[in-house]
């Protein structure tokens, strides 16, 4: 029996219990009003190592593409699927294809953060701001920032436990 269910059946024992209930309620309301997702997306968090070379950048970019494309269509995490901002570039295997994929990930992810009707609220704090990739140095900076901001985004949720649709 949850704390709320117990209180509903037994009432509040004292003013302190009432105060704790109100604190919990305010925290729940705050979390709901500040979270883009209904629940954390643990399945699509990117756990690939940060990039420090062309090879590791290609690996990270390809992993982010898979994770991000799965995340954007996920219900009940989102209010509605984001069928607009999909990443379609081929997997990164060279510096040129890495630049293309990293730049598309940045564009589509940033658009996803503010996609109308997708989130409970827009996620303005996770926008990727690094310069577009044009060489190894800029691609490393960009792809590592995308990973950081993406993981922050998928972990912003009103509820940590799984939700079930009824």
Provide tags for this entry:
166 residues; mainly alpha; 2 domains; two-stranded parallel ribbon; 5 helices
Description:
The chain has 166 residues and is mainly α. It folds into 2 domains: 3-34, no CATH class; 37-159, no CATH class. Helices cover 51% and strands 4% of the residues. It has helices at 3-10, 15-34, 54-71, 95-113, 136-154; strands spanning 37-39, 157-159. A two-stranded parallel sheet has the order 1-2. Helix 3 (54-71) packs parallel to helix 4, helix 3 (54-71) packs parallel to helix 5 (136-154) and helix 4 packs parallel to helix 5 (136-154). It starts with a helix and ends in a 7-residue tail after the last strand. The model has no long low-confidence stretch (mean pLDDT 87).
Topology:
Blueprint: H1 3-10, H2 15-34, E1 37-39, H3 54-71, H4 95-113, H5 136-154, E2 157-159
Parallel strand pairs: 1-2
Helix pairs in contact: 3-4, 3-5, 4-5
Shape: elongated
Query: Structural class of the helix and strand makeup?
Result: mainly alpha
Largest sheet: 2 strands, parallel
Helix content: 40-55%
The topology string of helices and strands comes to HHEHHHE
For the record, the count of structural domains works out to 2
Number of strands: 2
Query: What amount of the residues lies in strands?
Result: under 5%
Low-confidence segments, given as residue ranges, are: none
Strand line-up of the largest beta sheet: 1-2
Separation of the first and last Cα atoms? 20 Å
Mean pLDDT: 87
How many H/I helices? 5
Q: What's the alpha carbon Rg, rounded to whole Å?
A: 20 Å
